[in-house]
TrEMBL record:
Keywords: Lipid metabolism, Methyltransferase, S-adenosyl-L-methionine, Transferase. This is Cyclopropane-fatty-acyl-phospholipid synthase. Pfam families: CMAS (PF02353). One of its GO terms (biological process) is methylation. It comes from Streptomyces rimosus subsp. rimosus. One of its GO terms (molecular function) is cyclopropane-fatty-acyl-phospholipid synthase activity. The keyword Magnesium does not apply. Belongs to the CFA/CMAS family. Its EC number is 2.1.1.79. It is an enzyme of class 2 (transferase).
């Protein structure tokens, strides 16, 4: 069993047709790979069994969450080096790389190496998935029940844990940075205020905050702009936390936090709607319904600010699938769409789209700030949740930061109006007057 690292590295090189860009350290203390590179630590043979029984991203995810593999050195650098081998699916490079791997597997020497991997892995028994993995759901996507279960998986993991990661703002969406030297709190405050200005909120108006989280947008809008707010979330923990914050701020007469689906809101009309980081949960099959429902909830002249992550368009849109790691461990049933489709579906619902602002780089800065918060208080984070859950958050946030930086995904604020028949939108003549 000596030199497991060298044997694994040579096997990977045979299959990939190129040396691994990271160094490997195996459970037998052997090391192999480029000096000075980040180290992929394979702590036990169970990690290999996970890959054998679930080849690809899900097997790697289970090994990471269970602590069977780890990274020593800069996590961002390691993910950047490995991204072309693991996460860059749907790109122009994917098909030739996959074809090369399949050709390699036909070679006798590679088949021999694969048999060696089976030997290295030990007992031919599939390891149980880590407890943090969401069970695979069946039946129609995005029913009321299934959406509530998916939201609970991600958000009901402990408000204390989220306080640690998000900081005092308790805002779990892309911040708006004046510069990289700003603080996370300043950037989140500026984001909330930007949305209020885009919506042209005024005292006495009524705002619906869809996916209100822990109540931060509702609190800012009520406190700074004097509006009355209905905030809705599917997370019981978020709602309890938000109501406590509202009571402590003395704003219970202006803010109501409900555990409610957007499809169950029937006390329209509203002057404005904010949907911040929620529409990613809606799904392709339900998006037209989502847009139509929000349109119906607004009074004529009412405004919607839809803040949503977007993916790059694919040559074959039907080939889109959610990453297995994200689907099983982070956002079950979450789906991303290109911004063009989002704009088109809002228009199909009757909205007049007046502004689209891309803030992709801002999310990379936000995610790096969250990762820094998590890493700085790692032991406390583990205590507040589980080691596996903390590892899920660290990996998905770091990998997402790189995806935003490399333009694999983006995030956009779309301002849309339910323009009345008179054609008077109520917006200023000069575009983006809200910048001040």
């Amino acid at each position: 069993m000596a030199d497991a690292a060298g044997r694994l590295s040579r096997l990977a090189e045979e299959v990939l047709g190129a040396p691994l860009p990271v160094r490997i350290r195996a459970w037998d203390r052997s090391e192999y790979g480029p000096p000075g590179a980040p180290v992929l630590v394979i702590r036990n043979r169970r990690a290999l069994r996970r890959l054998l029984f679930k080849p690809g991203e899900l097997g790697l995810a289970r090994a990471w969450v269970a602590g069977d593999i780890d990274v020593e050195g800069d996590l961002y650098e390691a993910l950047d080096l490995l991204s072309g081998l693991i996460w860059e699916r749907g790109t122009a490079a994917e098909k030739p790389r996959r074809a090369a791997a399949l050709r390699a597997l036909a070679k006798p020497e590679v088949r021999a190496a694969a048999r060696e991997l089976v030997t290295l892995a030990g007992l031919p028994v599939p390891p149980k998935p880590p407890a943090e993995e969401a069970p695979k759901s069946h039946g129609p996507l995005h029913t009321l029940r299934r959406d509530k279960e998916a939201i609970s998986h991600h958000y009901d993991v402990g408000n204390d844990f989220y306080e640690l990661v998000l900081g005092p703002s308790m805002v779990y969406s892309c911040a708006y940075w004046e510069s990289p030297d700003a603080t996370l709190e300043e950037a989140q405050r500026d984001k909330l205020d930007l949305i209020c200005r885009k919506l042209r909120l005024e005292e006495g108006q009524r705002l619906l905050d869809v996916g209100c989280g822990w109540g931060s947008m509702a609190l800012h809008a009520a406190r700074e702009y004097g509006v009355r707010v209905v905030g809705i979330t599917l997370s019981e923990e978020q709602a309890a936390y938000g109501r406590k914050r509202v009571a402590e701020a003395g704003l219970a007469d202006r803010i109501e936090i409900r555990v409610q689906d957007y499809r169950e809101v029937h006390d329209e009309p509203f002057d404005a709607i904010s949907s911040i980081g929620m529409a990613e949960h809606v799904g392709r099959a339900r998006y037209a319904e989502y847009a139509a429902d929000l349109y119906a909830l607004l009074k004529p002249g009412g405004r919607l600010l839809n803040h949503q992550i977007a993916r790059r368009p694919l040559a074959d849109e039907d080939a889109y699938h959610v990453d297995e790691f994200i689907d099983r461990y982070v956002f079950p049933d979450g789906e991303l769409a290109p911004v063009g489709r989002t704009v088109g579906q809002l228009e199909d619902a009757g909205f007049e789209v007046r502004d689209v602002e891309a803030i992709r780089e801002h999310y990379a800065l936000t995610l790096r700030a969250w990762v820094a918060n998590l890493e700085a208080r790692w032991k406390e984070a583990v205590r507040l949740t589980t080691p596996g859950r903390a590892r899920v958050w660290r990996l998905y946030m770091a990998a997402s930061a790189l995806s935003f930086e490399r333009n694999k995904i983006g995030v956009n604020q779309v301002l849309a109006v339910r323009t009345p028949e008179s054609g008077t939108s109520g917006l200023p003549l000069r575009a983006r007057e809200w910048r001040g």
